[in-house]
Amino acid sequence: MVLLLAVAVYLRFKAPPEAARLLPESDGIVYVNLRPMHGAMHKSLKPVVRAPEYQEFLDATGFDWESDLDEAAIALHRVTDPKSPNYPVAYSMVLVGKLDGKRMGGFLEAHATSKEGYAGHTIYSVPSEGRTVRIAMIGYDTVAISNTPTPEQIHSMLDRHRSAALPFSGSTLLAEHYSEIPLLSVAWGMGRIGLPFAEDGKIRVLGMALPLEPDTAFLASVRWPGALRVEEIAPSETVAAKQAASLTLLLDLAKSATVGLGNMPANNGLKELLRTAQIRQIRNRVVVNATVSGELTSELLNGPAGQDNK
């Protein structure tokens, strides 16, 4: 009995987080565990001017994204129709945090244009910027959200919720790559995670266009407080060699361009990221390792002082 219990605990430890296992089939997955970051975030939180819509949401639900969100698992769905309001990417997500189910339900009842009963849950359809956002409470601390054109994805999440106790349930993408994510990573991504950053056929990060296609497959992870690892999975070793050379050149240019930046936390964090970045080719993969400082993390999470980032 003790042996079986030990095996069960080990399997749960090695398994993907439950929030990620609930996600539907997708082109990419991004996961963030905010619990270890809350302390650092709260120490460096800056005053923000909240948008009226967000203040209304906060007043109605009592849920503050900065302090109450513990986990976020996001599935990325590539949308190829340029006329779709979701182009080029739609999202499905599972959020875990300090939720007041009664107040959240009241807010959804007030703003939904329609409702659907599925698998013992109520799915609320809320219009947002030309899209339909479907939302379902699936636990006392968990909510499923999807803005995909059809309800298929949120149905899948509710179906997966029934088998969430199985430690290795989840999507094909998780089954293929989660074992490659370093232990104790507080944030990670896999698959076509460049899709949200794609613009004019290029992936842009921090304003820089990378020599990569938007549908390039990646593995990325961050171990707190700041060990960053990104792997590009190239179609061949030859392509990987070319990509490594291009990224090395781009890194050198970025280092030169940031030399004159002022002495500010975000600038210093960016310089540290570029200074510590190392690029290597390992067979058909290009591996980048770097250090993300606490200052840069805080700036990325909180935004500049006074900025409305809601």
What characteristic shape results from the CA principal axes?
Answer: globular
Query: Biggest sheet: strands, sense, closure?
Result: 12 strands, antiparallel
Provide the spatial order of strands within the biggest beta sheet. Answer: 4-5-6-7-3-2-1-8-12-13-15-14
Global mean pLDDT: 85
**Strand and helix order:** HHEHHHEEHEEEEHHEEEEEEHHEEH
Helix count equals 11
Q: Helix proportion of residues, in percent? A: 25-40%
Number of strands: 15
Q: Could you tell me the strand content as a percent range?
A: 25-35%
Total of domains: 1
**Structural class by sheet pairing and helices:** alpha+beta
Radius of gyration: 20 Å
Quaternary state reads single chain
Our measurement of the CA-to-CA distance between the termini, rounded to an integer number of angstroms, reads: 50 Å
Low-confidence regions: 2-12, 304-310
